[in-house]
Specification:
This is DUF1917-domain-containing protein. Belongs to the UPF0696 family. By secondary structure, the protein is of the alpha+beta class. The chain has eleven helices and eight strands. It has a domain of 144 residues: 2-Layer Sandwich (RNA Cap, Translation Initiation Factor Eif4e), CATH 3.30.760. Helix 4 crosses helix 7 and helix 5 packs antiparallel against helix 6. The radius of gyration is 46 Å and the shape is globular.
Length: 348
Amino acid sequence: MERNCTEQENEVDASFDVGTDEEQERQTQPSVESDANDSTNLAIRFKSDIHYAAKLRTADDDAFPSKETKVRPQVYREDSAQEQPTIAGKRKRELSPELSPKFELFHPREEELNAWQLDESASEFVQRLPPSTALVSTYTGIWAENPHRNPRNKLPCPRVDYFKTCGKKLLEQSLNNRHKIWESSATLPKGCLAVKLIQEGKALQQRVFKLARDTYVHPGKWMLLVKKVDVDRVWKQIVDGVIGNQLGCSCKMTTSDRSDECLVCVYTKDFEDTKDVLRVLQGLERIGLVSAAKVIYYKPDAYTYLNLGNGKAAKYVLPPTLYNSRPMLASQKASKLAFMTQEEGFSA
């Protein structure tokens, strides 16, 4: 009995291990279908490995970006659904309220009764102080300042007293030079003498202008002679333009009881800034105060401080004013017309 059981177990083990001849042949010879499946599985695993490696490399680059791979962070603001403005790939930096420039209205003549105030319009100012009836004994001049100024563009305070002292010395020196020219040119033709005197006048003008620059005496003004019957209307137009930042930095109306005319001055910051001088002149032209028939003149404050009026300026062979509105406007219009003609030629 025991023998039979052992023999049966051995027979089953032998049949399981060995099997038939056909089964042994199938086991020893791998099929073509199995090889194909194995190749497909390997390819899938290879692609998966590559994809996994790429993921790892991307994660490394995000954590430690190299110089070659720059990762631009995407910023999202919860308080705004709009995309942040960018400049050259970078988010535009917003100024904090403390750093934002504030252009507050500036008024150097605050609480001066003969000047326009911030809390009144041009009409209210003229009604309060009409230039046609202003008392000369009370106010020698009426002012209006342009309140729209950049506080960062502060100009140095003019050294008027020093300019006057040095300017008078320049005038005396020029007179001595003129006497020497007369003495040395006594035997020369009058034409040669005139040329030398004109050259001395131009040299004096350049010396005065240099002194004005060194002492910060930069301002100048367009001067308008207005009849008293029209002065209230004209003055209101000019004040409205100045306080509205359309004309110069300030304006002044000089009261006088000697004639039927009043002098109105519209100031600019720098008499050598011809672009700004022309801009103010064009503004006066737009409101009808200047034309080819209505000529006005520009005079630097340097001339005023040295009392270089018509008579005294001629003594030094100097022009009493610096700019004339007629040639200045004509030159600007001619250059503009030439530019337009040139553009038409290019377009044709």
